[in-house]
Amino acid sequence: MRTALAALAFAAATGGANDRAYAWDDCEAIALRDVPAMEAPDAILAKGELDGGITQYRINKATKRAVFCSHGGHCYPTHLTVKGETVEALRLTNCKIGPKSNDQDDEETYYPVDIIREKFTPGQLRRYDSEDTLARIGLCSACVGDVASQYLDKPTSRCGLLVESAFEGDPKAKAALQSPPNACQKQ
To answer: Residue 55 and residue 104: Cα distance in Å, rounded?
Structure first.
């Protein structure tokens, strides 16, 4: 598919293709036992339940406690203490922990999660590559999904052609995508 190749070419040219920007939609962790959320102990992730939308792995610098955090959800500890032993509580199913993030604070060390490409369908990968490339171009996070959908669903539409041009390196197309109104805004 030409559109996916253009997205990959742009990502490669800009240092991309690291699978990070928009992996949160489908990164999941499975609960290996009942796990209470860090900020809301009554929010229990039951054994066998999947926690979707995982965006980060964080380690508290003082306590060394590690958590997986979800986009729009909770942070759950990766390990729990049961009868004096530390046991794994959550395990990523389709993603992996990425390299240490540049975004840090005094209390926690942050790591993104990266998709494991082999665990996703070609259609999902086209979407991720397109969304990642649009994010690298500088689209707002709220715009990326909508523009990628228009591009992938209707590649010959005005929006699809604008995105294709941007992916191929056209600076005017990139600028147009970054500055509404443009062909990808829903009227």
So the answer is: 15
The domain ranges of the chain are 2-18+120-178, 27-118
How do beta strands 66-70 and 54-60 pair?
A: antiparallel
Rounded to whole angstroms, the maximal C-alpha distance in the chain is: 62
Q: What is the pTM of this model?
A: 0.74
Chain centroid to CA 80: how far?
26
| pLDDT tens figures, 125-141 | 999 899 889 988 988 87
DSSP secondary structure letters along 94-152? SEEE-SPPS---SSEEEEEEEE-GGGS-HHHHHHHHHHHHHHHHT--HHHHHHHHHHHH
Query: What is the tens place of the pLDDT at every residue in 42-90?
Result: 999 999 999 998 989 999 999 999 999 998 889 999 999 999 999 999 9
Number of alpha helices (DSSP H) and beta strands (DSSP E) in the chain? 5, 12
The closest alpha carbon to 19, from 93, 148, 130, belongs to 130
Identify the residue whose tokens are 């840090």: 104
The strand pair at 90-92 and 85-88 is best described as: unpaired
